[in-house]
Design brief:
Distance between the termini: 28 Å
CATH class: Alpha Beta
CATH topology: Glutaredoxin
Helix content: 25-40%
Largest sheet: 8 strands, mixed
Number of strands: 10
Number of helices: 6
Number of domains: 1
Shape: globular
């Protein structure tokens, strides 16, 4: 029966998750999803690597701030070079702002010079609701053992003004650095900011 469910999930381009809620210091909710190229990914596939989840919506001015300035791409590139897996998640429902097809998602990735490991399509909002993602961007960092270590904003500048990035405290970079050094994340939870996820 489980194999049938997964087969239907992949065939329909849907997502599946475990019933667990996101709790810092506990295993992150397991999920399986299809990316913009039609390839299935499970969180369990990345055990042994630090995983960054980024909720995104290309129509959101807060997202545009980070991509238009090149900030999000730079963080993606730097963390990937240090061994992280970066999964951008699109939970916008069909007909809502930010909803894109796989082809459109790939075009966005290319045009923006983005560097995610994969773009996960979550049009039913299954993963988004499991993680209680509220905004775009909303960031989650999961350690090598699959434990959720950070939830919140990308930085401490809740504005659409790109000039604020230069002096920002980047929480995702800090969380990754702490995890990589075997330390506790200094600030494991912050208030995310941005546009509401368009479920």
């Amino acid at each position: 029966m489980i194999r049938v469910v997964f087969a239907l999930t992949f065939a329909l381009g849907l997502s599946s998750v475990s019933a667990a809620s996101p709790v810092i210091g506990q295993p992150a909710p397991a999920f399986t999803a299809v990316d913009s190229n039609g390839k299935p990914h499970a969180l369990a596939d990345f055990k042994g690597k630090t995983v960054v989840l980024e909720w995104t919506n290309d129509g959101c001015p807060y997202v545009r701030k980070h991509y238009g300035s090149g900030n999000m791409q730079k963080v993606q590139q730097d963390l990937a070079a240090a061994g992280a897996v970066w999964l951008s998640v699109i939970s916008s429902a069909p007909g809502k702002q930010g909803y894109v097809s796989g082809t459109e998602a790939n075009e966005l990735t290319k045009s923006r010079g983005a560097r995610p490991t994969a773009v996960l399509l979550d049009p039913a909002g299954t993963i988004g609701r499991a993680y209680e993602a509220q905004t775009t961007p909303h960031m989650f960092v999961i350690d090598k053992a699959g434990v959720l270590r950070y939830v919140g904003a990308i930085d401490d500048q809740p504005t659409t003004d790109p000039s604020a990035i230069a002096g920002a405290r980047n929480y995702v970079r800090e969380a990754f650095a702490a995890i990589s050094s075997g330390k506790q994340v200094a600030e494991p939870a912050t208030d995310s900011y941005g546009c509401s996820v368009k479920y």
